Structures
1.
Amino acid sequence: MNIYQHFRDEILSIVDELASQNVIPAGMDTGRITVEPPREAGHGDMATNAAMVLSKAAGMKPRDLAAVLSERLNTIQWVHETEIAGPGFINLRLESPYWHQRLEEILQNGTAFGDSTLGRGETVNVEYVSANPTGPLHVAHARGAVVGDVLASLLEKAGYAVTREYYVNDAGAQVDILARSAYLRYREALGEKIKEIPKGLYPGEYLIPVGEALAEKYGDQWLGADEEAWLADIRSFAAILMMDEVREDLKSLGIDFDVFSSEKTLVEKGAVEGVLEQLEKMDLIYTGVLEPPKGKIPDDWEPRPQTLFRASQFGDEVDRALKKSDGTWTYFATDMAYHLDKFQRGFKSMINVWGADHGGYVKRMKAAVGAVTGGEGELDVKICQMVHLKKGGEALRMSKRAGTFVTLSDLIGEVGRDVVRFMMLTRKNDSQMEFDLDKALEQSRDNPVFYVHYAHARCRSVLRNAATEWGDDTISPSALAAADLSLLTDPSELDLIKVMAAWPRMVENAAEAHEPHRIAYYLNELATLFHALWNKGNDDARLRFIITGEPALTIARLALVQGVATVIVSGLQVIGVSPVEEL
RNA sequence: GCGCCCGUAGCUCAGUCGGAUAGAGCGCAAGAUUCCUAAUCUUGAGGUCACAGGUUCGAAUCCUGUCGGGCGCGCCA
């Protein structure tokens, strides 16, 4: 349950009630009323801006209106006291039993705590990774993979019906290059000496086994043959092998897609012609000549009539080309068809997770979605900025051309899957990130993965110790459920419960904002509070979890510890990281 | 030249679709361990939220401009 939502509803009914009693006008816009945790703990448990938001429409000064509202709020169940502060905030302080109930709720729900019905089962398509099937995944893909996957999990937890989708670009020029590169390796496998991989082809050694496999399957039949004889076969052969590798890499990151959509299939079934026909009917296509980009004119620029989409009618800067000079579709044209296809499969809400190099593509894609769905489809694009790897205090420079990039599987081999997943969420997706391989393995406060794991391990440790000393029954779910939680009276214990109680709201807000990194930050905060409480037990033995000779108090505190562990696990599940029992 | 993203403490970064005295970690200074994991914690110093205007009860947040960094800029994806 989102507790802030609960009290917001209470305020709305108070507003209605006051309106029906003609104390304030009826029919005011209450949409901007919020109930939030105040930034400062000293301001109570919750604060509402209701009086300030409504004051104008009510024709009252904010603080006067606040006085009227707070009088009624005082009578609501669980409200301990209210206070009018600053320009007209109403601060609420809640009674301790309310917080004890929240802990009980956590214990009853287990890791399902935080599940929300916000999404009302609406479908959302999250498309991520979508790397060309031309080589293994590397570090840049890892960030998008994690961001997309965790965003999908987050939306699921918030009550959406999520489809995880990978778009396989198996039709464009990139896979032709793959095929030519593989052909070289094929000749090599048959004994030819290849001195140097020509510029423009993929030099990576990962294609050597592909060449060998080709040689084994097809023998020498293509030696000396024209490209048109072998291109199609090798292209699909190599692309399939590459996708197998991609799937392996994703699996090792714990990522499993629901749908792999093939660009080639889409093109072959005429989807591009379909979407263009539709656009033609809407008069959104014409033949024209684009202006060269100002300030920077490409060397080989020449004005040329092209088939263009009126993207500028939908918020883009210029109209965009749909056909290449060789008559084939641009990537954009097939991507339009692809997004219409998604929409027709029932996804009004689409999220794409892209790398930084696609930033300039966002506007036209949004324009395209707006056009082909008649404004009904909604596209959000999360751009993941670059990841700079660091090791031994030095930057690891990567170059795809030189073949010196660090692969995803290298990275996982170096630090492990869970660390990769968590670390990728320690920055907003649109901020650049430095990934320090040494720090990611460090067991210190510096390393948020460790820090959260440590908090959970400490929880488990206390529970194990209690079981050893008092018997397994002490920590059984039924024993903890029967605990007298009213014995939890210390402010730091209640503070901890309050942060746990904020978890459902965190899930909803992060899901609505499409910001998975907030989960990692929340877990860090929860861990901080728990570590702090733990250390209070060092200063004051009365605050330790296990108090010999006081079973009731101990069980209440074990319930608290179990609650912390539960919420941490609930969060780690969203991130896709396994909790550890001990370190 | 144009578009998008970013600019917050010495460093790395949060900051809840406009809220109260702008936060955290690292680093720095000083402390806590016969006791549930000190792999942790506590306290302190540290700020013109890049800069200049504007919008309003209120701006780090929204708008305009300037400066600085990143990404991209017809027939690559």
2.
Amino acid sequence: MEKTFDAARAEAEIADLWDAKNAFAAGTNAGPDAKPFCILLPPPNVTGSLHMGHAFNHTLMDILARWHRMRGDDVLWQPGLDHAGIATQMVVERQLAAAGNIGRRDMGREAFVAKVWEWKGKSGGTILDQCRRLGDSFDLSRNAFTMSGAPGAPAGEEGNFHDAVLKAFVSLYDKGLIYRGKRLVNWDPHFETAISDLEVEQVEEKGSLWRLRYPLENGATYEHPIEFDAEGKPTAYETRDYLVVATTRPETMLGDTGVAVNPDDPRYTHLIGRSVRLPLVGRSIPIVADAYADPTKGTGAVKITPAHDFNDWEVGKRAGLRVINVMGTRAQIALKDNADFWDGIDGSDALAGLDGMDRYEARDAIVTLAHDEGWLDGIDAEPHMVPHGDRSKVAIEPLLTDQWFVKTEELAEKAMDAVRSDKTRILPERDEKTFFHWMENIEPWCISRQLWWGHQIPVWYGPEIDSEGKVVPGAVRAFCASTEQEVLKKAQEFYGASIPISFSREEGALREHVPPAAYGVDSDGTLGWTELDRDPDVLDTWFSSGIWPIGTMGWPENTPELAKYFPTSVLVTGFDIIFFWVARMMMMQLELTGKVPFKDVYIHALVRDEKGKKMSKSLGNVLDPIELIDEFGADAVRFTLTAMAAMGRDLKLSRDRIAGYRNFGTKLWNAARFAEMNDCRPVAGFDPASVTLTANKWIVGETGRVRETLDAALDAYRFNDAANVLYAHVWGNVCDWYVELAKPLFQDAAAAEETRATMAWVLDQCLILLHPLMPFITEALWGQIAARPKLLVHTDWPSYGAELVDAAADAEMGWIVALIEEIRSVRAQMHVPAGAKVPLIQLDLGPDQAAALERDRALVARLARIERFETAAEAPKGAVTLTVRGATFCLPLADVIDIAAERERLGKAADKLAKEAAGLKAKLGNPAFVAKAPEDVVDENRARLGAAEEELGILRAAQARLASL
RNA sequence: GGGCGAUUAGCUCAGUGGUAGAGCGCUUCGUUCACAUCGAAGAUGUCGGCGGUUCGAACCCGUCAUCGCCCA
């Protein structure tokens, strides 16, 4: 064997080996009555590449999958990709532009979607190859895609996900849980689509607060307070014929339809009910009372633009104000042909100049006009939060449009019930609170997107007809079904079997659905013929990923997978998509199947850089998991992430830490090398309970304990505990102690055979127990150590436990280890050369200790570098005394002893003991403690006091001897 | 403004009522036949402050301070 593990070479070989054996196929290694264990990979974006967050998320899932597989469960780890509507459309559009292609609008919908599929086939899903580097053991033969089976999907992309999404939509639509409505939505002017609340990020910007003077109508004036006394009472007034409003968005003033003041604001109450004349526009708009106006902010008077602000929309509704939209889909000022706007006013040259301007150009222009025309009161710098699209990074614009919404209130109630009744557990508990907080305040979910890459909404429109069969001009009738045949059937039922109906193949308007011009009305006003026009919008990506659990298992068909693996066992995911994904999956699965999608949800935190900063490309602090794997090996990266995965806390990743766990792999590797050099080969039928030597019994017992602790940790998703118990066992128990203890035993003919067999067994157990965390190095060693019937990935998980612990052997090893450590410590403090061998003199020894020393003399001799064992009644002059539970020894170091150092050592040890004894004495002297504390705690304290006092006595004697020297 | 959380060794962090821990870093010593990606020994803590509950508090409760994150 080499001195170190060649991760790069071995990992590739092992990955090929697993592939060749199809090692991760669902159900592999399942026992006869196997329990299903199913875990869903949160589908990464098809555009994505593996980042640290994935690496963390996947590592945890892979540990669970491998652990359950080895335990003989029927494991399905379901992988797949998300079509990621906006993100993917963005990537492909950018590429088309870079290649000098025509834009998507010129290309047309069908051609563009074909381009996206082409891109997906070439460069989509590189992330899945990267997952392989990490060791992800998902079943790639079941790889799913949220757009599989959609119209235009090329060969190889068949699948039923598209059907499932449409059926889910139709099902919710038929239940009245999906509706279309004209509402103010978050509009992304870059992508020209609506987005949901969750896709909006608030970004603080340095902005200004502009104060604008709106003249009072009919020459009215009022007294505005300008000076105040110490109590805040006005002492001076000025006469104003205008009202000053403060705004962060002067450009929206074109759409103002009112001014609000607080009903309790004495400055303005007398103005309520009067009107101001909107500058530039010339519209007369009312001054209304609304608590939304905050007297402490700005001037206390706020302009109301119901069409362009969510708060103003509410105020407008309460006050019955008009809604006048003054912007287009690219957030440009849109006044031309805007009937609403021109209603009740006359044009002006200034307005004509503003038409078509970008919103920010318009802002500057309007402020300049205000200044020139004298209605700019002033400008204050004020930072404020501006909503931005999370993909486009441009400021979103509230816009009044027709969109599709999911009624989330009822669905949320069911999801909350499932969590309250523990049908689904959310861990850690804190995130359950977050879940409830959001669900209780849930808003309707806007699911329509004005994009092309996605599931087109399965709704077709035709003309509305009244009860007498007459066409209602301008009204629209919607038909929802998952196929054209079904739509046709529904339409035919509605309009009558004799009406010729066909489908319009033209691309409809982008958002506003008007009844198709292409229909005929007979002379009696009834419908003669019609075309049906499909809604051009697509569904929010999260609508389709919302049915990921059932969609990947063949729903709505009643497949064997659904029967077996659904509801799934556990969902492992980051806190950032609790609302986007987890909550929505809960709602949709419950509504569509009546079942929760998963029994447990384990929410993990974010991977940050070593300074605690979020990793981001712009900060340049991104650690690329693939680079780290190249440098340190996948096992080291995985183990690091696992060890740092304390529940609910962000983890700060540093290269030092990864290097440390790379060293851990090397340590394991060298332990195996040691075993090989000493001819330790796995013995068939080896029974760990049958060993006879203390050291062997001890390590066997430790292994049993580790198995139990490890399983308990994984069972509770305490991944860091799992990593730490393994680390401490392999490095501490096995490498530091057992390997060293074995060396003298190998020299002893009577002990060698059993020890070799035990060593081989212990190492095998280390490989098995470590495999879920460090799959590559353990699989490599497993194959290297011996020919095996099965790969390690399929080796049965052990069931032994603490019954392997032999209390006597445990106590004896504990004592021997303490003795060795004490001797080493004294040697180091007395500056005994590391290589020098010294005699050990036993002064006072209990019977158990004497027996132990007799049995394990060779171990002590080697590990503490003792040249011979002697017995004496009293310590010789210049000897250093040492105490180990129930025994007193000394080291005759007359030649080398440093009296000052020894005095210091004894003094320090005695002080520490005296302090401890005093504390214990005080505790035991407290009657309340003795009366109320549990008996075993009291006993334990008594025992500790006894031991401390005894040892203290010995140290005092040693101090006295030293003083007499 | 509302909600959630954090504060423990130089650093990064475990630790849910009974002897304060790990890794890294640091100091000293050491290449004894698995491993220098190593070994041995060592130093370092009013567990953020104050108050309370308790026989007993890093842990439970209250409060203050500081710092995060999410939502407005």
3.
Amino acid sequence: MKPFAIDDIFEKRRPREFRRPVTGHEVARSAGVSQSAVSRVFTPGASVSVQTRAKVLAAATKLGYRPNLIASSLITGRSRIVGVVVPGLRNPFYAALVDALSEALSGRDYRVMLFTAWHGTSADPILDEILRYRLDALILVSAELSSRLAEECGEVGLPVVMVNRKTDSEAVSSVTGDNRAGAACIGSFLLAGSHRRFVFMAGLDSSSTSRDREAGFRERLLQAGAVPPLKVHGSYTVEVASRATRELLKARTRPDAIFCANDQMAMAAMDVARSEFGLDVGRELSIVGFDDTQLAASPAYRLTTFSQPVEKMVDNAVAILVDACNGRDLSTGPHIVGGRLVVRDSARLPPRGLSQVGGRTVWTQSAKQSID
Amino acid sequence: MKPFAIDDIFEKRRPREFRRPVTGHEVARSAGVSQSAVSRVFTPGASVSVQTRAKVLAAATKLGYRPNLIASSLITGRSRIVGVVVPGLRNPFYAALVDALSEALSGRDYRVMLFTAWHGTSADPILDEILRYRLDALILVSAELSSRLAEECGEVGLPVVMVNRKTDSEAVSSVTGDNRAGAACIGSFLLAGSHRRFVFMAGLDSSSTSRDREAGFRERLLQAGAVPPLKVHGSYTVEVASRATRELLKARTRPDAIFCANDQMAMAAMDVARSEFGLDVGRELSIVGFDDTQLAASPAYRLTTFSQPVEKMVDNAVAILVDACNGRDLSTGPHIVGGRLVVRDSARLPPRGLSQVGGRTVWTQSAKQSID
DNA sequence: ATGAAAGCGCTAACAG
DNA sequence: CTGTTAGCGCTTTCAT
């Protein structure tokens, strides 16, 4: 009776003429061994005689057997799936990050479950989903997480790693570029290029990244006794950034240097400055970005921007994650990976401090100019 | 004894002081009901009395219960996870596609498991993974799949939808833009703009998309009695496309029109033509792309390109997929969604045929010029 | 080295 | 409407 009952249930679910996936039990029967023998054959460190292994393997390939990972993860308690939450893939920097993450994780035999949230939105509702799927870990790319839920993750033992964002909550590791120092560096660079009227185009105030970049920039300018930057909002989108730039350039006294919290906004600003105001960006107006996305290097922009080393950030994040999944949680807290100011043509050059590194021109503050 | 044994096992796996996720059984005990009552409360269409529901919900929130979707999918046979295979996210067109797919699927209550393969590589090894996870369906974005495995998917009842690629195999649905017609349209457009020396920059010959675009372009040129296009290889990458363009423009007799199989290559070609050869693209040399990615519209490129309606493709793909997951497999085979030639400044304009649609300039072949 | 047996957390008949 | 019961396909003792 049993098989019939099962088949009936099955038929109700898959109304078509499908052979349902073959189970370990079936392989066992076909090979004349026990089901546990089959399991052992497919478990890396298990002890099976060569004969049994051969029999099982033969039967398995004959029947087209593939172990059901869902079932095994139910019992082992680990799914080897990690959730990746990202505010959309339209921003090339995020796309690059997720791409690298996906590759790194699959190299470590983890699968990626992708969640696209919205910019500035909390990851909370998504996280609820994630908790239901019993994922092994969670990576938050440029996404926020309420401390309540962060806590809950800690309680449940779900390792959380934030990438390109940080948080106050302990038990949540984070990997970011050096936003503060990078922004300060840009400040110095612009100062050295004798700019006077600065503007900072923010991303989202809810993002620690944008706040840190603003703080670093502002502080450096203040230290140098310059006029603090005017702050405008670009929302990390080209539409808003374009509008903001338009306003800026329509004003009677224009800024002579705009630092945008990311490359996308910087390129949008360049587009507006060049095509709507006919400005020669790099001579009449300096624009600097942050991230060093692929497009920043293209001849169409040649954007001066602070590089965020995607590979390094990803390696770090994955290392932390893997450690955490294995119970070693040594590395909680913030991790900062350094970057460089990559100098191209979108901002006026300072007289000194330029050097060549790996085919790129970078700027470093010379010793005597150094402030901190 | 039992709980101890379980706890021991648990401790071995999660070496830290974690409370393991609470189970439905625990909620049941705390609420003074049966475990199935708990299950019913969390099953949409089940009948539970208000009192029980209240008791269960109270206990559940108190304990922080979240149903284990892994366990439930083991028994229902559906995971509500679909695999999405894509050759990297660095190509903005793919990123946009995956982004839209992710959003559309999460709207239908499906989760996305992301696999990044490599361009031109078969999805086969990845698919093996996928089969082990018992995903509900598979979406192949611009990725190939051997017919052997496609068949195997059919046998197992795993619905497969290819997006931006097609295949000969039945039982595999595909959604593509109208590559052939689009390429033919570009041919006519270029002809009407009185170009003479054409080149087609291919993506990968293994991609049906590139082949279709080539065929459509070539045929149209031939029909018109023009010299067939010279074919060069761009591999869908900016490096190779740049090199190819360089070679092309170094030659004694330059082409006057280059049709690139995608926007990325077209923009790479523009970069080389402008910055290395000082050419005025759109006057001295015409370059046309395919996809109409976001960047194509930017003032820095203003690329003339055939639009692929991402939203429409995604809606189609998701609809097919959802149908298939529910056993209705009416829509297998190829689906083609149309596009338009979006005219901007990277190619010389023909005297007639231009019109405004939704704020964009598009080109349509006038009746008397029409050939097929 | 191998099989039997006991679950992992959940859903779905089936009685009541 | 609710509890009981029987598994989903697998891993892991525990004897043998």
4.
Amino acid sequence: MISLKKVKQKICPVARKEMIVDAALEILASQGVASLTMDKVVAKLPCSKGTVYKHFSCKEDLLMGIGDKALTILIALFNRAVAFNGNSRERALAIHLSYLIYAILHHDLFQSVIAIKSPTVYNKASAEKLAKHERLENKLMAIMHKLIATAIENKELTNINKLNPQQISFALWSMNFGTIALLGEDVMQCEGRRGLEVEREYFNHNNILLDGIGWLPLQKDHDYRQSARKILSQLFSQEIALIAQSGRVLVF
Amino acid sequence: MISLKKVKQKICPVARKEMIVDAALEILASQGVASLTMDKVVAKLPCSKGTVYKHFSCKEDLLMGIGDKALTILIALFNRAVAFNGNSRERALAIHLSYLIYAILHHDLFQSVIAIKSPTVYNKASAEKLAKHERLENKLMAIMHKLIATAIENKELTNINKLNPQQISFALWSMNFGTIALLGEDVMQCEGRRGLEVEREYFNHNNILLDGIGWLPLQKDHDYRQSARKILSQLFSQEIALIAQSGRVLVF
DNA sequence: ACCTGAACACCGTTCAAGT
DNA sequence: ACCTGAACACCGTTCAAGT
């Protein structure tokens, strides 16, 4: 019998680590988080299971690697968004729109970051990978914290509840995350959700919440629908085009 | 060799179905959703795998059965909450507090309902079980819809955004769900979340949001902290005692 | 030293064999 | 007709054997 064994070959470890994450990402994108299998990852790779396990101590560790990639993409979007040329509330809206775009365009990555938050995953992953993920998450949140702190200083955010920037940032994140998690495409769409479109409700929730914390100008004094259109065309035309390719149009 | 085969025995199918769900529930409570295994369920049961599969076509179907139990508990809590003797915004607060209590007291059930919303589960479960689950979810949401519709009629909810009751109900649900999902006990608690307590932020978010949709009286005109205390002592003293048993105190 | 893949334990699901 | 549990396919993880 002819041996079909793969020939041993040394590759730069950093490059290989990236190859492994990329292979996992392909499976994630085409089959979803639940179908992500070490067997399938290895099948896409020019190396063996043992080698994959040298880079990632377990499946959960690999998921952390994917989550890091997700956060890196999101950080780039947030940074682009926060630079929008408008008032501070419009910049907050820009960040939120970038989060929605990310959730639609990379819904597999969005799912992977959710998965990471569950004990089954974070209890198994290595301390090193967990620390790295936390660093990235902090970097992401810092963008929002800074915008909020500045807005409070400039009296654009009246903050009637006297919450600190971290608390306000969390209120916004909870709302946005919850909306996408309950109305997103990967969620069971039962009768109770009929008539609700994630992008429209997301926009509504954003207005309600920013009014609720007293972020000026309030809805009644500003046309945020127009701001949203401006943000999308000025900052995210490329992403909107990609979303449009799947036959979907973002309307507010 | 002595045969250790279980002796065949007929049992009322309805009772057995409940026994199976209860066995699954025990595992869920002690080991979490991810550790729920058909093997473990069968081990707790006086019947075989084949019989379990006669009642539930697959693991996901069984999860739907658990989810139904979860919704039934939640519906009972909502009904108790909405009967609170106070203004309509206080009744909304009561419902939200009951949701938080449910998430803390039955966090395993909370997790199971989340799991059901993912495609891996709802795509595999039987149509019959899905329909039943949807019916229960509608029953749950109807409680909130009705309260909102009445509040709008009575001009207690000024609804400056002109959203329909379903949309408002979804805004509230998104916020509450998102807050628990991001700050709950089963979530990775990294540095960015330090200093945030789910019950305190949950209460803050609730106030911000209800102010945002103009549900009267606004925070500045009413002490909702006192309302919360009244609601908990009048309606949920039993649940609060159970939570206290695990060394936890709900403070607002 | 580094890499491979057979082997093991575990899990969901099926179905031939029992009563 | 109803129930059982061995058997199968699949998956995460390990490690003895190869180079």
